[in-house]
C-alpha cells in the first residue's frame, strides 16, 4: 500500500537550505548474466545548491554509476536519493548531463544541436533561440553556429556539447569525464573555461574526472572514492579562494590538497589535509 504520509518529500519540504541532492546509504548492485557486481555501497552525500563538486577515484569505483543515479537514469538498489527534498522520479529538464562522448548529431548544425533539448522539452522557441545564441557567443562559437560538427575541432565540439547541456537553463549540470578525450592543452583551456562559465552562472555542478588538479581547481568539494565496492573514502572541502584561475595552481595549499587526494587514491586510508 502506498502511504503518502511516508513520502520523504513531505518530510523534507524544499527550502533554500535544502541540498540539491541528498544521498543517504545508497548502494547499487548490477545483476548480469555473468554475475553480480556491488558497484556502490554506503554512499552518503549532500550537494548544496550552487556548489561545484567533483568525484575522483580509480577506474571502476562507481563514479559513473553514482552520476547516473543522480540523473535519474539508474535506480539505487538501496538507500534514499532526494533532489531538492523530493524523491527522484527519472530524468528531468532541470538536470543536464554532459558525457565524454559528446554525441553531436552530424547532420544538424551546431546551433540545431544546441537547440535540440529545448525542442524536446517543448520550451518557447524564441526565448530558447536567444539563450542558445548567448551560450554560443559566450563560448566563442557564434561564428560556427551554421557549421556541422565535422567542421569543428575536438575542443569546439566539447564546447558545443557544454552549450547544449546548458541550453535548457538546468539547475544542475552533471559532467562525466567531459574532457577525457581531449589533449592536455585543450583540456586545461576548457576546464578554465568551464570554471569561468560556472563562476558566472553558479549552477550546481557535479564533475567526474580522473584529473586531480582539475578537480581541485574547479571544486568547492572533492569526493574521493575507492573501488570494489565503490565507497566514499573522504569528502574534502577545497578552501582555496575564488575567483580561481591558472595562478591558483601555484598556491602551496593547492599542492597540499592535490597531494592529499593522490595519497587517498593510491593508498586509501585517512590522511590529514
Ligand atoms: N550496466 C552495468 N551492468 C553491469 N555492471 C556494471 C554496469 N555499469 C557499471 N557496472 C560495473 O559497476 C562497477 C562501477 O562502474 P562505473 O562505470 O560506475 O565505474 P567508474 O568509476 O565510473 O569507472 P571509470 O572511471 O572506468 O569510468 C564496475 O565494476 C562496472 O563493471
TrEMBL record:
GO molecular function term, any single one: ATP binding
Span of domain ABC transporter: 21-252
PROSITE patterns: ABC_TRANSPORTER_1, ABC_TRANSPORTER_2
KW Transport (keyword) present: yes
Family to which the UniProt record says this protein belongs: Belongs to the ABC transporter superfamily.
Protein's UniProt name: NitT/TauT family transport system ATP-binding protein
Organism of derivation: Hydrogenophaga laconesensis
Keywords from the UniProt entry: ATP-binding, Cell membrane, Membrane, Nucleotide-binding, Transport
Amino acid at each position: 500500500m502506498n502511504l503518502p504520509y511516508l513520502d520523504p518529500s513531505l518530510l523534507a519540504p524544499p527550502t533554500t537550505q535544502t541540498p540539491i541532492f541528498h544521498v543517504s546509504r545508497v548502494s547499487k548492485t548490477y545483476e548480469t548474466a555473468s554475475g553480480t557486481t556491488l558497484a556502490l555501497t554506503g554512499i552518503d552525500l549532500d550537494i548544496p545548491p550552487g556548489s561545484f563538486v567533483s568525484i575522483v577515484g580509480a577506474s571502476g569505483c562507481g563514479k559513473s554509476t553514482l552520476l547516473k543515479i543522480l540523473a535519474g537514469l539508474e535506480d539505487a538498489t538501496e538507500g534514499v536519493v532526494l533532489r531538492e527534498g523530493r524523491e527522484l522520479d527519472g530524468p528531468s529538464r532541470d538536470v543536464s548531463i554532459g558525457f565524454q562522448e559528446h554525441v553531436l548529431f552530424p547532420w544538424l548544425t551546431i546551433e540545431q544541436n544546441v537547440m535540440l533539448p529545448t525542442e524536446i522539452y517543448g520550451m518557447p522557441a524564441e526565448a530558447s533561440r536567444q539563450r542558445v545564441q548567448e551560450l554560443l557567443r559566450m563560448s566563442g562559437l557564434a561564428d560556427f553556429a551554421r557549421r556541422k560538427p565535422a567542421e569543428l575541432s575536438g575542443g569546439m565540439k566539447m564546447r558545443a556539447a557544454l552549450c547544449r547541456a546548458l541550453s535548457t537553463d538546468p539547475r544542475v549540470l552533471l559532467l562525466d569525464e567531459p574532457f577525457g578525450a581531449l589533449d592536455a592543452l585543450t583540456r586545461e583551456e576548457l576546464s578554465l573555461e568551464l570554471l569561468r562559465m560556472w563562476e558566472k552562472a553558479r549552477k550546481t555542478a557535479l564533475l567526474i574526472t580522473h584529473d586531480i588538479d582539475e578537480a581541485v581547481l574547479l571544486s568547492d568539494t572533492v569526493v574521493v572514492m575507492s573501488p570494489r565496492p565503490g565507497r566514499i573514502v573522504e569528502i574534502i572541502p577545497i578552501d582555496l579562494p575564488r575567483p580561481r584561475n591558472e595562478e591558483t595552481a601555484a598556491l602551496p595549499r593547492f599542492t597540499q590538497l592535490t597531494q592529499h587526494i593522490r595519497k587517498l587514491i593510491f593508498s586509501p586510508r585517512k590522511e590529514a589535509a
